[in-house]
Amino acid sequence: MPELPEVETICRDLRKKIINKKIVSISVKKKNLIKQSVTGFKKKLVGNKIISIDRRGKLIIINLSTGNYLLIHLKMTGQLIYQQKDNIIAGGHGLPRPEQGLPSRFSHIIFIFSDKSQLFFNDIRQFGYMQIVDKEELDLVIDNYGIEPGLKNFTLDNFNNVLKNRKTSIKALLLNQKVIAGIGNIYADEICHLSSVRPMRRINTLTNDEKKKLWKYSTTVINNAIKKRGTTFSDYVDADGHSGSYVGHLKVFGKQGSHCTSCSKGVIKKIRHAGRGTHYCPNCQK
DNA sequence: CCTTGTGTTCTCCG
DNA sequence: CCGGAGAACACAAG
After folding, report:
1. Residues contacting strand C at CB < 7 A?
2. Which residues contact A165 (CB under 8 A, 6 or more apart)?
3. In the structure, what pLDDT confidence band is assigned to residue A100 with cuts at 50, 70 and 90?
4. CATH assignment of A156-280?
5. Total-model pTM
6. Mode of pairing for the β-strands spanning A118-123 and A78-83
7. Fold exhibited by the domain A4-143
């Protein structure tokens, strides 16, 4: 599940691989993954060079030489895997991993560069998408994203401001991309755990100390996860097809039934909250 | 009344 | 069933 740290890892990888490369052709095998006609999509991409690669929340923004932008959202199970021409061996069935061969049956869109290297957009569940926008449309899209751990706007003051007058739960707010961008289900649970706050706590009941911890651990968790190149729980891999290792640092996500390693007294509980599987320690999270 | 905020459910797919 | 996140919808308060 790519959240901010996983998407950031992919962006950093891709910058080293495809900047200045020219797209010579594109294969679209599933047209429902692009938000426009296949012909329009190809017309706007083929012949372009990749100028730069950016990210806002979980959205990848690729700046093209024509001045348009290719937006890529990986949603649940999307992958972007880059392969030099010598490594490309058609896979067909197994998992969408390079060692299984690419393209696989989940390689729905493939970019081919002038040096014959390729970028595979794989997606098992097909929730992800690609879309080409101009600068004006890009600005509108970006405006819909809230403050973001790692950006200058993620100050304690701004964090307290977005929490002000909200009646929802802290987890629902952490997941709301319009308010706070980049945090998904795994890191929301981890941030709440390290802050000793239950995910379903109403925001108006949080103490100043708890809010400060939530703000601090939002940045800590996200930054540590970036250092570990993300969390691979099921399908996430980086641009080389490798897993992230933050999974070894998870305290609550997927730990239901285990003893809490923070307080060593509680047993991690899994419930459903804010429409998501939610994990917490009933002993040390209040 | 209408607008705004918020919460809930549905949708895509394997 | 699960789930990222937008859409559609329901409801409440100003």
Report:
1. A 1, 3, 57-58, 73, 75-76, 125, 127, 144, 175, 177-178, 184-186, 272, 275-277
2. none
3. low
4. 1.10.8.50
5. 0.93
6. antiparallel
7. N-terminal domain of MutM-like DNA repair proteins (3.20.190)
